[in-house]
Design a protein that fits this description.
490 residues, globular, 17 strands, Rossmann fold, alpha/beta, Dihydrodipicolinate Reductase, domain 2, 9-stranded mixed sheet, 15 helices, single chain, 6-stranded parallel sheet
Length: 490
């Protein structure tokens, strides 16, 4: 069963960084899929812009190659691909000097279509591009600007970036994208909580023991060497992706699905997070850095070897015990962990409920495992509810835990749209529900900054862990000293 595709209004989609990695791997394939599913109205145009000297036909060939490489062959329809590339054009632009913006203005012309400026470039160019768009008179009331992370490396720089873009665009025009929020399972978390009477009455400290959020990668640095060594896992993953997931788990029911209603509730969660200061950091956080080991069936280098440097203090793994100081979640720890070169690629949220207050079955029944709700974001998106049942057969009451498994692939036929497809279409519709508001970004940095400062002040080192494992032993101690265990699924 597939949902009905509703075409969007005509738009001009301008990709700054149009020949870059993000455009090649994600944006152009996502736009092609929307073309293939008949979601474009005429006359929709896509314009690539970057410093590279290139003609329109060369850019169209670049797009064809990108789609051939990053789209499944079964999803490539030659007629639709031809229609898609016919929408493409290219303009060489220097974001620093402003060379090329006059050509962009001429190319767009007097079009009254929606304009979406996608900044698939480094954040140091956000202000320059915004300023040149304004000086070139390219911004209309129906314009939007999309900015990718990182939005700063601390609170001060985030505010500076927000100020630079905010001087030109209104907050209602700014779309701060986090592709995790476009994942089907993340949105289903809201449907699960607020579309069913079953869970919400139990969604509090009276019934939930703790929450785990894991985003584990098996890859190393790949092509992000320069960026990653300056950022580290806390800035790269926790400040945005993981805190957004935490907010969706922990927030109160919004008054509606309208963007600001949802974001108001997420903001309350961020502001309720207990600060982790210099004294708390060694007890509530773990930093790690992978060493040489094995991954995907073969040997892999350690972080320093991949980096090509003799030393680096950058963490490739972080685990945090977070707490939310409000009535719903008082006393319920949220355990966060993320890292590179871990044992499996998995992103999931585990809600562990409190055990039954009394075991009526006795020791012969076996261990009474607490109920768990596991929301899997990747791979194999789906939801599992772990419950206790009687083991079939004679011999008395023996219990075991089994999952009630709802796999999206099994339950819904057809290809699941990529997160970028959904988010790009939301940009065109002007729907900001799945995008971060300025005060959300800054509230997240207000919680992250004290951790960064505590690590620096206490000189807290990144502990080594072997590639292909689940991280430093200290991360196991972090949760097990509370009498709990990480949920480790491959």
């Amino acid at each position: 069963m597939t949902s009905q595709i509703i075409p969007v209004d005509p738009f001009d989609f301008i990709i700054f960084g149009g020949t870059g990695d993000l455009a090649e791997r994600k944006l152009l394939p996502a736009l092609y899929h929307r073309q293939r599913d008949q979601q474009f109205s005429e006359p929709t145009r896509i314009i690539g812009a970057s410093r590279s000297k290139m003609e329109d036909d060369e850019y169209r060939e670049f797009a064809r190659k990108a789609i051939a490489e990053h789209v499944s062959p079964s999803d490539i329809d030659k007629a639709e691909l031809d229609k898609f590339v016919a929408r493409l054009s290219y303009i060489p632009i220097d974001a620093r000097s402003g060379d090329g913006f006059s050509k962009l203005k001429k190319a767009i012309g007097a079009s009254k279509a929606i304009r979406a400026f996608y900044l698939a470039v480094g954040p140091e160019l956000f202000g320059d591009i915004s300023g040149h768009l304004k000086r070139s008179d390219l911004i209309t009331p129906d314009s939007r600007i999309v900015v990718e992370k990182p939005i700063g490396r601390d609170l001060a720089s985030a505010r500076a970036l927000n100020d630079a873009v905010g001087e030109v665009f209104g907050e209602h025009q700014i779309f701060r994208i986090d592709h995790y929020l476009g994942k089907e399972t993340v949105q289903n978390l809201m449907a699960l909580r607020f579309g069913n009477a079953l869970y919400e009455p139990l969604w509090n400290s009276a019934h939930i023991d703790h929450v785990q959020i894991t985003v584990a990668e098996t890859v190393g640095l790949e092509d992000r060497v320069t960026y990653y060594d300056k950022a580290g896992a806390l800035r790269d993953m926790v400040q945005n992706h993981m805190l957004q997931l935490l907010c969706l788990v922990a927030m109160e029911a919004p008054s509606s699905i309208e963007a600001n209603a949802v974001r108001d509730e997420k903001l309350k969660v961020l502001r309720s997070l207990k600060r982790i200061n210099g004294q708390e950091a060694p007890k509530s956080t773990v930093r790690g850095q992978y060493r040489a080991g094995a991954s995907a069936g073969g040997p892999v280098k350690g972080y320093l070897e991949e980096l090509g440097k003799p030393d680096s203090t950058t963490e490739t793994f972080v685990a945090i015990k977070a707490e939310i100081a409000n009535w719903r979640w008082a006393g319920v720890p949220f355990y966060l962990r993320t890292g590179k070169r871990l044992a499996a690629r998995v992103s999931e949220i585990v809600i562990e409920f409190k055990p039954v207050p009394h075991n009526i079955f006795g020791e012969a029944a076996g261990n009474m495992s607490p109920n768990q709700l596991v929301i899997r974001l990747q791979p194999d998106e789906g939801v599992k509810q772990f419950i206790m049942i009687k083991d079939p057969g004679p011999g008395g009451m023996r219990l075991r835990q089994i999952p009630l498994d709802m796999s999206f692939a099994d339950s819904f036929q057809g290809r699941a749209p990529d997160a970028y497809e959904r988010l790009i279409m939301d940009v065109i519709r002007g729907n900001q529900t799945l995008f971060m508001r300025r005060d959300e970004v800054e509230a997240a940095w207000s919680w992250i900054d004290p951790i960064l400062n505590a690590w620096a002040d206490t000189r807290m080192e990144a502990q080594g862990y072997t590639a292909g494992t689940w991280g430093p032993s200290a991360s196991i101690a972090l949760i097990e000293r509370d009498g709990r265990t990480w949920h480790e699924s491959g």
